[in-house]
Predict the structure.
Amino acid sequence: MANDRLTHNQILIIMKKLFFVFCAFLISLTGLVRADEVNPLPFKVKVAGQEAKVKSPVSASADLEFEVKDKSMIIINIFPFTDRGIVDNAAKPKIILVNQSNKTKLNKTMDKAALQPGNYLMNVVADQKSSRILFEVK
């Protein structure tokens, strides 16, 4: 009867081949996701038509749009922050509630007061997730 056992060198060669096949598989998966399709937020948020990173200042009545599955309730909290990115904990947040829709405006706050010019942090809660957006009101 012939010796059916693999030698140590044969095992190493098989392991190397499997490792390279596994690496090739992983590399092929990275090509499935394009960089422009990656969104760091759990759902897309548009402020005055600008997605995620709001680069240009917006008006105090800018349109807000949210790409969410469940439109029954969207809760928005807006806080002013300094140029250094520090949120004033003593500041009262502006709150916007959106029912049965995925669109609203920045001036639809519960206290009916318009946002003053400055930098703001907006937390949007929907689909049991939260997206955080930084923007400037002109």
